[in-house]
């Protein structure tokens, strides 16, 4: 007997990119004090008012099977939120509630990619993207971007890889680079999708974390609502990472088919979690939850401006910084391991997010301001010492 290659080939025979993170967790388990700047986990947990709503719902009896597409009130609230933020008419029939954004990524690729189809995604990318695509039997195809372009994709580079492709996955604001795609970038993407008849999967889980410019959903561009599936989540906007609740917004016919997929996979999201999400969407907490990252971005800009070794890629959105450490003579992976060993500071190598980010590291702005400033200052001093040794 053999296991399915969809399972055994999830990582494409290579690394899943999480080695530094796992090493840091081993050190912590052994008693070391490590400053973790690795994953996008808020240092301030889910607001007590949201937890109270969740408890009240559970104690009130909403613990049985919930309606698979999502409870009507939550679907209505998500539709209203999306319509208000994008100007695109959106109703309950356009919304499926999912167990977080990751499940939504898997489901949207199932919906759009025939077996063996090429599925495009932008490099650098969130670490699960290639495995998600392999998991539905499609072939992941990265579209390289460049630091000189602020890691925004060029339409011509997407078009050059589009033969035999069924879908394109984008993420703005972007994890890991912090790039927010401007209108010109998104219009170029839309043109390729029209010309090449591609489905567009738009991961917009960081849409409440925009520090520079404006967030524009490609679903709002002319003719794109019928070919775009938008992924949203409560994880980043409301610090509900462990609650596992998100959504897909798209054409009603597609949502109907995705509901059937949910029935044979997740069988919905717990009702008390949905009720908590409904409360959270009406709580007005988004700005409060985003504020620490806006503040820490300003701290980082000030610290990095005082030195010339570590370069900051413009951080326009999301809770991360992409830093160029090539002046040290090390690639991102070697630098991250060396920093962890020497300073007990854990960051993610750029190579964990694709070859376009080689020679960079990703820093999550997810510890208290003082600790963050201290860690970033020590990181820069460490990099300066390495660079001096290159002379």
What does this structure look like?
The protein is of the alpha/beta class and 391 residues long. The chain has two domains: 5-45 and 286-390, Aspartate Aminotransferase, domain 1 (Alpha-Beta Complex); 64-281, 3-Layer(aba) Sandwich (Aspartate Aminotransferase, domain 2). Helices cover 41% and strands 15% of the residues. The chain is built from 14 helices and twelve strands. The protein has helices at 5-8, 19-29, 48-59, 72-86, 100-112, 129-135, 155-160, 183-196, 234-237, 252-263, 271-281, 286-304, 332-343, 369-390; strands spanning 35-37, 95-98, 118-123, 139-144, 165-171, 199-203, 228-233, 246-249, 311-312, 320-324, 345-349, 360-364. The protein has a seven-stranded mixed β-sheet with strand order 2-8-7-6-5-3-4, sandwiched between helices. Strands 1-11-12-10-9 form a five-stranded mixed β-sheet. α8 (183-196) links the parallel β5 (165-171) and β6. α3 runs antiparallel to α11 (271-281), α5 (100-112) crosses α6 (129-135) and α12 (286-304) runs parallel beside α14. The protein is globular. The mean pLDDT is 96.
């Amino acid at each position: 007997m053999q296991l399915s290659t969809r399972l055994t080939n999830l990582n494409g025979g290579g690394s899943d990119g999480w080695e530094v993170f796992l090493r840091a967790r081993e050190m912590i388990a052994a008693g070391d004090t490590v400053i973790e700047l690795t994953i996008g986990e808020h240092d301030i947990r889910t607001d007590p008012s949201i937890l109270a709503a969740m408890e009240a719902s559970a104690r009130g009896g909403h613990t049985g099977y919930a309606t698979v597409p999502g409870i009507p009130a939550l679907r209505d609230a998500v539709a209203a939120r999306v319509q208000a933020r994008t100007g695109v008419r959106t109703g309950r029939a356009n919304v499926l509630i999912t167990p977080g954004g990751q499940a939504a990524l898997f489901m949207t690729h199932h919906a759009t990619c025939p077996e063996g189809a090429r599925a495009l995604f932008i490099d650098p990318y969130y670490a699960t993207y290639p495995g998600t695509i392999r998991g539905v039997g499609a072939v992941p195809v990265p579209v390289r971007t460049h630091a000189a372009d602020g890691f925004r994709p060029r339409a011509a580079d997407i078009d050059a890889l589009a033969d035999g492709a069924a879908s394109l996955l984008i993420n703005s604001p972007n994890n890991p680079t912090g790039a927010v795609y401007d209108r010109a970038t998104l219009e170029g993407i839309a043109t390729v999708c029209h010309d090449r008849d591609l489905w567009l999967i738009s991961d917009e889980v960081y849409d409440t974390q925009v520090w520079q410019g404006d967030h524009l959903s490609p679903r709002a561009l002319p003719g794109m609502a019928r070919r775009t599936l938008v992924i949203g989540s409560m994880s980043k906007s409301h610090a509900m990472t462990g609650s596992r609740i998100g959504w897909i917004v798209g054409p009603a016919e597609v949502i109907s088919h995705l509901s059937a997929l949910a029935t044979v996979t997740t069988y919905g999201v717990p009702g008390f979690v949905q009720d908590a999400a409904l409360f959270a969407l009406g709580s007005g907490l988004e700005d409060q939850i985003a504020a620490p990252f806006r503040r820490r971005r300003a701290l980082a800009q000030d610290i990095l401006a005082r030195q010339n070794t570590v370069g900051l890629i413009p951080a326009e959105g999301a809770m991360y910084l992409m830093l160029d450490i090539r002046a040290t003579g090390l690639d991102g992976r070697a630098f991250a391991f060396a920093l962890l060993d020497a300073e007990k500071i854990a960051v993610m190598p750029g190579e964990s997010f694709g070859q376009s980010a080689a020679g960079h590291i990703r820093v999550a702005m997810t510890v208290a301001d003082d600790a963050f400033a201290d860690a970033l200052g020590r990181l820069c001093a460490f990099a300066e010492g390495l660079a001096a040794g290159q002379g």
